[in-house]
Specification:
By secondary structure, this protein is an alpha+beta fold. It has 4 helices and 4 strands; from the N terminus they run H-E-E-E-H-H-H-E. The chain has a single domain, classed as Sufe protein. Chain: A (Alpha-Beta Complex), CATH 3.90.1010.10.
């Protein structure tokens, strides 16, 4: 278990230092600002749709290591997924970071999002982890208002 926790910590650190898809998406269909006033995380998320698929998702901005790593992982996980599949993944991630995920014994099938399972032990960090996910959820449902954790 300690090896798995070390791997998860490494994933978070890597995605914070080297965030994937950290750029403006000039041909985005949807743009959503996301803000966490508690710790100052602030991102702009860009989504390009192709029918009912997320063709591309990128982000820019700044925030804590958890929020940046979460946005980075989210951008890699959701790219190419159908909106319906993205909604399912969002629900699993939301349950995971809130400590409500029922499959705790077998997290490996969740891929890199499993790295955020430990966030549930730090309630103030849940909002950091979920911020970008809420923004993308709003974007695919055509709600381009600013998303905030409050």
């Amino acid at each position: 278990m300690a090896d798995l926790q070390a791997l998860y910590q490494e994933i978070i650190l890597d995605h914070n230092k080297n965030p994937r898809n950290f750029r403006v998406l000039p041909d985005a269909d949807r743009v959503v600002d996301a803000y966490n006033p508690l710790c100052g995380d602030h991102y702009t998320l860009y989504v390009r749709l192709d029918g009912d698929r997320i063709a591309d998702v990128t982000f820019q901005g700044s925030g804590c290591a958890i929020s940046k790593a979460s946005a980075s992982v989210m951008s890699t996980v959701l790219k190419g997924k159908s909106i319906a599949d993205a909604q399912k993944i969002f629900e699993v991630f939301h349950q995971l970071v809130r400590g409500e995920f029922k499959g705790e014994r077998d997290l490996e099938h969740l891929g890199k999002i499993a790295a955020f399972a430990g966030v549930s032990e730090f309630p103030t960090r849940v909002k950091c982890a979920i911020l970008a996910w809420h923004a993308v959820r709003g974007a695919v449902s055509a709600n381009e208002q600013t998303v905030t954790t409050e």
